[in-house]
Amino acid sequence: MPKNHVKLVIENSPEEKAFVLEVPEVTTVESLISHAISKAKWKDRKLALLTAKLGMAEAKQFNAITQPLNDMIVSHLQKFEIRLKDKVSRNFYIL
User: Fold this and answer.
1) Nearest to residue 23, comparing CAs of 9, 7, 10, 5?
2) Where are the domains of the chain?
């Protein structure tokens, strides 16, 4: 099972959570984000995705994910930085 580091950040807030998540082989980035939100106990909040960034475990740099999150499969030892916003707007993708 792939192990991935996921950092969740709520924009304009001191709230931040980081996890190492072990997920099944064919997990999408969208599912990984949902799993991380559940683990953070933020599932009942109305959150909007602002950005999703990807990096490799040994690298310090993150790159924006530009493809659909439900099409991208996670690999072992990837790092994700997910920025969320509490206010819901129709311009944002709602998780």
Assistant:
1) 5
2) 3-94
